[in-house]
Amino acid sequence: xxxxxxxxxxxxxxxxxxxxxxxxxxxxxxxxxxxxxxxxxxxxxxxxxxxxxxxxxxxxxxxxxxxxxxxxxxxxxxxxxxxxxxxxxxxxxxxxxxxxxxxxxxxx
Length: 108
Hints:
By secondary structure, the chain is an all-alpha fold. The chain has helices at about 1-40, 50-80, 85-105. About 5% of the residues are buried.
């Protein structure tokens, strides 16, 4: 029990100290998603089906690309696939999706 209390206190302190950096990272993640979504507007039609496909690709591509960077570094070092690649993609996807949902504004 004491270990859990100490751990949560230390993690809370790290969150408080690192909040400006986390906010900057989230802003970069959202900016990358918005940029990719804008680029894909050139490819897909403006209809509802085109918008859904465009948003789906933008939502899925960013986490895969971000997780691919450490996977390539790991592969260059060990000549083996990164063991927890999909778990890393899921974590990045959850963070990105959470940030997008928080910042979501319904189209008027």
